[in-house]
Amino acid sequence: MPNRSLTLWPFTDLSDDRIRFGQRFIRLQQADRGPIKFGLRHTEKWAGYVLGDHLFLKTIPLIEGKQYPDLGSNFETFTNEEFLELESLGPYEEISPGQTAKHTEIWAVFSGIQLPHLYDEDGFAAAIDPYLKQLL
Prior knowledge:
Layout: E1 6-8, E2 19-21, E3 26-28, E4 36-40, E5 46-51, E6 54-59, H1 69-72, E7 75-79, E8 84-88, E9 107-111, H2 121-135
């Protein structure tokens, strides 16, 4: 039975070498090239970005049983020649006049980080685990 979905935008080329689907991680690398965007129902509760010796982590909320936009995506990522974006999405909510909706992300930035290459997924997971424990 399927256990996850991937939402693609028409301009996304899955053969682009900036994307890597590993056993444990998905990598999207920013470069001076055209756009890529995809979304998914993300159950791991976090996403991150590595730049040099800096690690940015953020929480990706998921409320089970709720309906999400973009074919069920609570997480989307986009890159082009200018930037890379990590976006969490909230579920559809009907809001009456005077009501509010709340969507909370927690962000953390760590510096002086030395991480193994993402191709070493076990080593990468072990290296980021202490930072994830601080975030989550």
